Amino acid sequence: MWRGLYTAATGMITESCRTDVIANNLANANTTGFKRDDAVSSDFKPMLMHRIDDLSRQQRDVTTFKGFSLYQNAPIIGELGMGSKVDEVATDFSQGSFQTTGNPFDLAISGEGYFLIDTPQGQRYTRDGNFYRSSSGRLVNVSGYNVLDERGRPIDIPEEATTIIVGATGNITADGNPVARLGLFQFEGGRRAMIKLGDNLYRPNGNNPRRTNATGEIQQGILERSNTNVVSEMVNLIANYRSYEANSRAVVTQDSMLEKSVSEVGRNM
């Protein structure tokens, strides 16, 4: 009974964590460049079950003679699951849809790549291309952090410039004059190469990951929307609630059986 209680409880904890992940996805459904997460669960190592009464029965078996028996082990019933856990929260880096804004400082990456951002914690990366020209003339993101060029330097936009053009490879020109080239990078290692930090920022996974120029292209006057599908997330949330409810009922059932064992079975012994 205790085992069943703990198994159901671990299921509730897992589904609770999955609910938090889904809620975060829904909360960022309109966040530019946001990448949704998935809670990947796994089970604890299952336990092999035997018929325990067969061990005592073997001592009376006619095939038993001077410690030797044809039945050395009790018959196997099967495996018993010991509960579940959240193995990892994996990020889905699939491309989000594009939204045309017409703002020359709004940039989207079509394909692989990240913009380079200077933060108080050091250089970070983002897919959010919702940029602005600050009062000091610097190109910054929505948090006020400087957007960096390919050499890791801030980008200054001339105040008198009337036409800002950003090419597919990140070359910025103001009224036809070159200004800088955006830092646009990617890392080897697939989806595990980047770790999500919050505020739509990422950092590379590992001490010395290999950084290369991004293969993606920049689209000017366009923003990449979140890759969260609200309908799918709501369906997942309903399914998750039902799983949590089933585990909750299992806990109540196990608790009732324990109470009955203590109050009734124990009294009659």
Main attributes of the structure:
3-stranded antiparallel β-sheet; 269 residues; 4-stranded antiparallel β-sheet; alpha+beta; 19 strands; single chain; 3 helices
Number of domains: 3
Distance between the termini: 19 Å
Arithmetic mean of pLDDT: 85
Order of helices and strands, N to C?
HEEHEEEEEEEEEEEEEEEEEH
Total helices: the number is 3
Architecture overview:
By secondary structure, this protein is an alpha+beta fold. It folds into 3 domains: 2-45 and 81-91 and 229-268; 47-80, no CATH class; 98-224, no CATH class. The protein is built from 3 helices and 19 strands. Strands 8-7-14-17 form a 4-stranded antiparallel sheet, with no helix packed on it. The protein has a 3-stranded antiparallel sheet with strand order 11-12-13, with no helix packed on it. A two-stranded antiparallel sheet has the order 1-4. Strand 15 (194-198) and strand 16 (201-204) form a beta hairpin. Helix 1 runs antiparallel to helix 3. The radius of gyration is 29 Å and the shape is elongated. The chain starts with a helix and ends with a helix. The model has no long low-confidence stretch (mean pLDDT 85).
Q: Briefly, what is this?
A:
Helices cover 26% and strands 30% of the residues. With 269 residues, it is an alpha+beta fold.
Q: Mind sketching the topology for me?
A:
Blueprint (H helix, E strand, L loop, with lengths): L1 H26 L9 E7 L3 E4 L2 H6 L17 E5 L3 E8 L6 E3 L6 E4 L3 E6 L2 E5 L5 E2 L5 E2 L23 E3 L4 E4 L2 E5 L2 E4 L6 E5 L2 E4 L6 E3 L3 E4 L1 E3 L5 H39 L1
Antiparallel strand pairs: 1-4, 2-3, 5-19, 6-18, 7-8, 7-14, 9-10, 11-12, 12-13, 14-17, 15-16
